[in-house]
Write a structure and sequence with these properties.
Elements lengths: L1 E2 L3 E5 L2 E14 L6 E15 L5 E18 L2 E16 L1
Antiparallel strand pairs: 1-3, 2-3, 3-4, 4-5, 5-6
């Protein structure tokens, strides 16, 4: 389990950043090339809108799980499941 993780994507109008309180990533050793992502606790999502204004969404989750499948050309599928959340928009 990782703490203090920050994932950032630079977009043409500004950065988008996700900061989970706790984060884990697992690669399957059998079957498909599938990666499982898990996050827990307080989450922060920050982004810049097209007009340059900054936005932030703070939420807590009981469980956030995602998975990604990729092949030789890159990602082919992404799934996200969020259970038990509370949201506070800013």
């Amino acid at each position: 389990m990782f703490r203090g993780v920050s994932l950032r994507i630079d977009t043409p109008h500004g950065p988008t950043e996700w900061r989970p309180e706790e984060f884990a990533m697992h690669a399957l050793t059998y079957g498909r090339d599938k990666i499982i992502f898990e996050a827990a606790g307080r989450q922060e999502l920050r982004w810049t809108r097209d007009d340059g204004s900054k936005r932030q969404l703070v939420f807590a989750v009981a469980s956030l799980r995602a998975s990604a499948i990729e092949d030789a050309t890159g990602p082919t599928r992404f799934d996200l499941d969020l259970v038990g959340s509370s949201v506070r928009a800013r």
